[in-house]
């Protein structure tokens, strides 16, 4: 595609007043949805799918992109004001943001958070525009065995990084794959996991599963603590000084790179990126404005620039490989399938306008995020004080209505409620929901590509094992998968601890 054609598709997101309005409305709603504890961006986007599946694809994507961008940023507001992150990606922002609020500098902290979030989001969009076409060309070289390994690696990554242990993460991912496998076999049409029930032959709709796991389960968790004390917060000056932004621009750029790289890894996301960026800031900043953990401005800048840059990174594997970068892009993949599109290597060849429209839409949403983020702080301070007893029943009602509208089926509602209860108990026992949803999305990909990989070696398991080291791309993915598994074993962790202890002993001796 030539530059002028790509530019015309890019400007498509800016050419229609209606699309601009949808993006602005989605961004505004996303900021407040992401900011309210108990409301997740993933839950909001999954509910939106059920309401927008009959829309034009550009209209639906415009509002969902706005909610995504706004929601990732919005979680930091409650983290800074009342030390309750609105989203997992905002956990690190509260480490120093809340101490700033206790010093009477909540407005300054929010202003800095908004500005660096905008910088990080723009950086992520630039990398998406420049890097995704290269990744798409590379992905055309992928064989079925490579997609199989990539899907498995995505589940292992999110299992290793987002939970208490790899074993729990893998078990949660396997549970998600099992949910995605219910119904008729796509090749033989034989019933799988239906237990003789005709109602289960149609399978479990992944949107119903997402709404249940993310919406109902979180509502149940929040309803257990109805007597939570409401914290009042005074909001002071909002706009940060240019001196502060320019001084810390190198830190924001470094953490933006961390965010894009982590976001592009299948199955990770802004929460992992934010924590890693915060760790980088602690190690690299020699003279912070205050000690980290006591209100350091650098402790707000680093995680916020990283988690917002991770949005652009998460779109890269989603659009080029058909593999979600995080839980939200997993839902967006479902939205694309519902609208008859197939994210993956052929997307930029068959529907290049979709890619450049998405890039333009992300950039537009980032601008609205900056505008809305620097306004309405006082009104927001009242909104976060809404009691859970009032808010959570509204969420459950919206979940039921949204799930029923998918297929006008009460079976979907029953599954949504049942899986919501299941998600509640998973959270109670330390399991993460992310691997379950990723398993639901990646299960059919694993199933299909495993069959293709077996057929390519005439059904020989030994041939498949040899095939895993027969190609440079396959070899790299095989080594990465094995390395991830080995790094999570108790033996390797004990070995790593011994090495760190030896280094700690040797360093004082050298001095």
Give a summary of the structure in a few sentences:
This protein is an all-alpha fold. The chain has helices at residues 3-15, 17-35, 41-52, 57-82, 93-102, 106-139, 144-161, 166-181, 206-223, 242-247, 249-264, 270-284, 298-321, 327-338, 347-350, 352-373, 377-383, 388-407, 410-428, 433-456, 461-467, 472-487, 490-510; strands at 183-184, 191-192.
Task: Output the keywords.
2 domains; 511 residues; 23 helices; mainly alpha; two-stranded antiparallel ribbon; globular; single chain; 74% helix; 1% strand
Characterise this structure.
The protein has 511 residues and is mainly α. It folds into two domains: 9-468, no CATH class; 469-511. The protein has 23 helices and two strands. It has helices at 3-15, 17-35, 41-52, 57-82, 93-102, 106-139, 144-161, 166-181, 206-223, 242-247, 249-264, 270-284, 298-321, 327-338, 347-350, 352-373, 377-383, 388-407, 410-428, 433-456, 461-467, 472-487, 490-510, and strands at residues 183-184, 191-192. A two-stranded antiparallel sheet has the order 1-2. The mean pLDDT is 77.
User: How many extended strands?
Assistant: 2
* SSE sequence, one letter per element: HHHHHHHHEEHHHHHHHHHHHHHHH
CA-atom Rg in angstroms? 23 Å
Q: How many H/I helical runs?
A: 23
The number of distinct structural domains comes to 2
Mean pLDDT across every amino acid position: 77
Strand order of the largest sheet: 1-2
How would you sum up the major sheet? 2 strands, antiparallel
Our measurement of the CA-to-CA distance between the termini, rounded to an integer number of angstroms, reads 60 Å
* Helix-and-strand structural type: mainly alpha
SS strand fraction: under 5%
Query: Which stretches are low in confidence, meaning pLDDT under 50 for 5 or more residues running?
Result: none
Spatial shape: globular
Fraction of helical residues = over 70%
